[in-house]
UniProtKB/TrEMBL annotation:
Signal peptide: none annotated. GO terms for cellular component: membrane. It is a multi-pass membrane protein. Coiled coil: none annotated. Keywords: Membrane, Symport, Transmembrane, Transmembrane helix, Transport. Belongs to the sodium:neurotransmitter symporter (SNF) (TC 2.A.22) family. InterPro entries: Na/ntran_symport, SNS_sf, YocR/YhdH-like. This is Transporter. The keyword Membrane applies. The chain crosses the membrane at residues 32-49, 61-81, 113-137, 169-188, 200-228, 240-264, 276-298, 324-345, 366-389, 409-426, 446-466.
């Protein structure tokens, strides 16, 4: 054992490559740090970039309602299961599931769910880094005053200009990748912890401010109607699927990320309470993002269903009009990048922890290997917007394919594996003890959701995708 008396969050990043026992891997220094890290993972581009644009493209209120229902009935139970498996298994996701399967006398093949997760995280990173690069590219753009006085059309042209420039996209995307690898490689203790303490409250305050601005300068009533008055005629089966996929995405589920974080969680912390808080914070941030953006969309005659560029076209109009907009805009995009980086860290952690713990590869090497492959995948994704725009698989560019495959297939598949494993392979008493839900009624509710509700919902998704339902 190495220094059992100094177990802190940071030691996980620097943990020796061959360290296998639970105690030498290190733990988060407190429950609060786990909450911050998990919230940092959950809150990211999914909330501020993706949620508004898919809500806009799927008709608003009804979509939001289904999304919230998915968070409550599938997301939160699965989040708890992931954290529980991680804490109980005290290893990377594949290792943890393998260990628990062995203990339960089940097939070791369950660890493949962990592999699938690490692979899914890798594919997500491919397109996620590109979008994070958009945000970073917009920091100097905002500070330079390029947004001042732009209307919808001029703002759209600025964004199109960025997409058409592969060199700029690569520069900024790689910068985000480098920042991620640096943090993951060097040790997370001070960096992540300190950044999160400032970042999370900062992002929250800034978003609130933007909502305030949008309420005054935009069409707030139209936005409220759009977001909260459901019109089910606007919602398609595809929209329901998207809402479910997004519930996975926004809570960082189905890839083992929360398992990896759970594996550093001290005993005695309530998994249920922490998970609820993480989900609440995540949902609040997404709704705030919607409330900041849609008033401006409606006031400026923009199209809510405009697609992935929505926030990058809408918000600059506001920054270009408000007092101190250059500064506020620059700050906003800095925060967005930081929020994205706390998510990319968690996306790469399962794969990197697996490489180091399974093969004894040194952490630095695992990081470089993963990073090189990611640079290639990311490049393929960013070329989707310019040179490779015509190359399509099944009518989708590489970028869209990564998004579609992960959100619709791979994350739900990883989630299905996880709930079946928890609900049907592990013993009820073990799970009850490990998850630490005291009240029997609540435990039964969760247990039954996991055993029946969640698997059925996910299977329905798959049946729908192949056109059977
Ligand atoms: N939840 C993050 C977001 O909303 C994205 C993310 C981070 C993620 N880690 C993940 C998605 C793991 C799936 C799995 O931006």
């Amino acid at each position: 054992m190495t220094e059992p008396s100094r177990l802190t969050a940071g030691s996980f990043a620097g943990a020796s490559a061959t360290a296998r026992s639970a105690s030498s891997r290190g733990l988060w220094s407190s429950r609060w740090v786990f909450f911050l890290a998990a919230t940092g993972s959950a809150v990211g581009l999914g909330n501020i970039w993706k949620f508004p644009y898919i809500t806009g493209a799927n008709g608003g209120g009804a979509f939001v309602l289904v999304y919230i229902a998915c968070i409550l009935t599938i997301g939160i139970p699965l989040l708890m299961a992931e954290v529980m498996i991680g804490r109980r298994g005290r290893q990377n996701p594949a290792g943890a599931m393998g260990r628990l399967a062995r203990e339960a006398g089940a097939s070791p093949h369950w660890r493949k769910v962990g592999w699938l997760g690490a692979f899914t995280g890798f594919l997500i990173l491919g397109f996620y880094l590109v979008v994070a690069g958009w945000a970073l590219a917009y920091v100097p753009t905002a500070l330079s005053g390029a947004f001042s006085g732009v209307d919808g059309q001029a703002s759209g042209a600025l964004f199109e200009g960025l997409l058409a420039d592969p060199g700029r996209l690569a520069l900024y995307g790689l910068a985000v990748l480098a920042a991620t690898l640096l943090i993951v490689g060097l040790g997370v203790r001070d960096g992540l912890e300190r950044a999160l303490r400032l970042l999370m409250p900062g992002l929250f305050v800034l978003l609130l401010g933007l909502v305030g601005y949008a309420a005054v300068a935009g069409d707030f009533a139209a936005a409220l109607r759009f977001l909260f008055v459901p019109d089910f005629s606007q919602l398609s089966a595809k929209g329901v699927l998207l809402a479910l996929g997004h519930a996975f995405f926004t809570l960082s589920l189905g890839c083992g990320a929360m398992m990896a974080y759970g594996s550093y969680l001290p005993e005695g912390t309530s998994i249920a309470r922490t998970s609820l808080l993480v989900a609440l914070a995540d949902t609040v941030v997404a709704l705030l993002a919607g409330l900041a953006i849609f008033p401006l969309v409606f006031a400026n005659g923009l199209e809510p269903g405009a697609g992935p560029g929505l926030i990058f076209v809408t918000l600059p109009i506001a920054f270009g009009q408000m007092p101190l907009g250059q500064l506020v805009g620059g700050l906003f995009f800095v925060m967005l990048v930081l929020a994205a980086v706390t998510s990319t860290i968690s996306l790469s952690e399962p794969g990197i922890a697996w490489l180091t713990e399974r093969f004894g590869i040194r952490r630095g090497r695992a990081v470089l290997l993963t990073g090189s492959l990611l640079a290639l995948l990311g490049t393929a994704c960013l070329l989707s917007f310019n040179h490779w725009a015509e190359y399509q698989l099944f009518g989708r560019t590489v970028f869209d394919t990564m998004d579609y495959l992960t959100a619709n297939w791979l994350m739900p598949l990883g989630g299905l594996g996880t709930v079946l494993f928890t609900g049907w392979v592990l013993r009820r008493e073990l799970v009850h003890e490990a998850v630490g839900i005291g009240r029997p009624g609540w435990f039964s509710l969760w247990w039954n959701l996991l055993r029946y509700g969640t698997p059925v919902a996910i299977v329905l998704v798959f049946l729908n995708l192949i056109g059977l339902v």
